[in-house]
Design a protein that fits this description.
alpha/beta; Rossmann fold; 5-stranded parallel beta sheet; binds thymidine-5'-diphosphate; kinase; EC 2.7.4.9; nucleotide biosynthesis; Thymidylate_kin_CS
Length: about 210
Amino acid sequence: MPAGAFIALEGGEGAGKSTQGGLLVQHLRDRGREVVWTREPGGTPASEAIRTIVLSPEFEGLDPRAEALLFAASRGEHAARVIRPAVERGAVVVCDRYVDSSVAYQGYGRSLGAGAVRDLSLWATGGLLPDLTILLDVDPVIGLGRLSNPDRLEAEPIEYHRAVRAGFLELAASDPSRYMTLDASGDVNEIAHAIADRVDSALASAGAE
Ligand code: TYD
């Protein structure tokens, strides 16, 4: 049985994570892998219920610490019920957003501090981190311009989204062996090929092929 793997897709609003996630999942399934494609906040019934709360424009002004705790609670449930069991049985988990979204949006965007927010998620998940994180980097002016009907986070001012982007780039720069950063304004198929190549080599070196 091949070894499992955990791959996270990260990036600001409108970076194309869903499109690239879908293409990566198809690529892996074509190669015969069991793939679990999931997202945060969400991925279990309770975590989807938390998603409804945190994204609802009804809760404008939600306390930043409460917001961070809700994302961490959603993540703890998701890691325990979906991600960890799937990796243990040999599947490849492709997750749209994970811990780094909390570090970037709550740690940098809400100025709660990267270390505290990361520690909260590590506690919530029992220390579960991705084997590889793919960061789709895009100027927030371009990314937000791709969206319609903004949710509570998307509706934040541009300075907030600039801080989020800087946070993601700092995280990726701090550990290049666990991150792949791509310019998300590029050609969709070229980005997809680059991601597939990097994931294939990560799986091969993990003895997963
Ligand atoms: P996303 O799934 O990208 O939204 P959409 O369905 O509109 O594409 O992410 C939901 C929002 O939640 C997004 O604005 C980022 C934010 N978020 C955080 O602030 N912290 C987190 O830990 C996560 C996972 C998401």
